[in-house]
Specification:
binds pyridoxal-5'-phosphate; alpha/beta; 2 domains; 356 residues; 12 helices
Length: 356
């Protein structure tokens, strides 16, 4: 019943001149010059040909990076595509009459708001279980006590570090959760390059654990739509059965490969963004904001004086676009993407005129 579905609402992409865009966690720094060069060089008569169906050269290069085999890697048209593929491959629509756990897509709230949308599209059951009040991960004992969490759910998504709170989780906490879980667990590491720890070792330890990565946020490549899963070859095989034959476009493959050829450029950008995050946190705190510690390229901040929704409008009037979510747990906060130093100065100036 397609008319009953609630579509995912992405952050807006307005075309307003001079607008500082801090609403969709895009990277303020452009792709490496090598990526631009390689992409431009690929725009020729080859556009008439189909791209490599499995993005094999990219799988091979990613396998080297993560010290695994190409059979452990599957590439998607953005990691979003892989997330819906996981729902299709590992859960059953409720209408099939399959047991409840087989039809369950599980996740914590608040986290990436796409997960329940994907469950709905597939006709599966969405089980959103609250994080702790400080957006911490509940322990296995707490989840058992709370009764709502299903340890046999066919598919569980964990955004780590978490969005929209920015909170990071340790490998030890994630390990304990994965150990207790019977179904597939996707650790969605979209922001992990800005965090202290990553959990790829859990893929080696547990055949039911998937790590999801994307070139969008840390690698300045939203436009090209490339993401990937690292998983056990049997899990990759199952996903491959629901994959479109040419799911990753050719220019995206070229750009992602070139990205992996210039990682020092990106690592320098992570450092800059992390330094700007510290400065923005400190400055906003001085101005009366309550800023949660972040391990991502955005912060979640509770503004002073006016409700967060009003701040959204006031900042927009001053040509700064940030994100505000209506959900009860975060409606008092603004989510602000870390921009360049210049954009951050502009934002801080706007905040000061609002408070003046
Ligand atoms: C942005 C984001 C994604 C999707 O990234 P794409 O690779 O651009 O599809 C997935 N998960 C989370 C938590 C994100 O924030």
């Amino acid at each position: 019943m397609v008319h009953k579905l609630h579509p995912y609402v992405p952050g807006e992409q307005p075309r307003i001149r001079g607008l500082i865009k801090l609403n969709t966690n895009e990277n303020p720094y452009p792709p490496s010059p090598k990526v631009l060069e390689a992409t431009k060089a690929a725009v020729d008569g080859r556009l008439r040909l189909y791209p490599n169906p499995t993005a094999q050269p990219l799988r091979e290069k990613l396998a080297k990076l993560h010290k695994c085999a190409p059979e452990n890697i599957i590439i998607g048209n953005g990691s979003d595509e892989l997330l819906i593929m996981a729902v299709r491959a590992f859960t059953e629509p409720v209408a099939t009459g399959a047991p409840a756990d087989k039809c369950t897509v599980q996740y914590f709230t608040p986290s990436y708001s796409l997960y329940p949308v994907l469950a709905d599209i597939h006709g599966a059951r969405a089980n959103g279980v609250p994080l702790k009040a400080d957006f911490g991960l509940p322990t296995v004992a707490e989840l058992k006590k709370g009764k709502q969490w299903r340890f046999r759910a066919a598919l569980t998504f964990v955004t780590t570090p978490n969005a929209p709170s920015g909170r990071g989780y340790t490998v030890a906490e994630l390990d304990a959760l994965c150990a207790a879980q019977k179904g597939i667990v996707v650790l969605d590491e979209a922001y992990v390059d800005f965090a202290r720890e990553h959990a790829v070792e859990l893929v080696r330890k547990y055949p039911h654990v998937i790590v999801s990565r994307t070139f969008s946020k840390a690698y300045s490549l939203c436009f090209q739509r490339v993401g990937y899963f690292i998983a056990h070859p049997e899990v990759v095989g199952a996903l491959d059965r629901v994959r479109d034959s040419y799911n990753v476009n050719g220019l995206g493959q070229v750009a992602a490969l070139a990205t992996l050829g210039d990682l020092p450029y990106y690592r320098a950008n992570f450092k800059k963004i992390i330094a700007t995050r510290a400065r923005l946190t400190e400055e906003l705190t001085k101005l009366g904001f309550s800023v949660l510690p972040s391990q991502t390229n955005f912060i979640l901040a509770k503004p002073p004086q006016f409700p967060a929704e009003e701040w959204l409008g006031k900042l927009r009037d001053r040509k700064v676009l940030v994100r505000w979510f209506k959900y009860p747990e975060v409606r008092d906060y603004l989510r602000i993407t870390i921009g360049s130093d210049k954009e951050t100065d502009f934002l801080l100036k706007a905040v000061k005129t609002i408070l003046a």
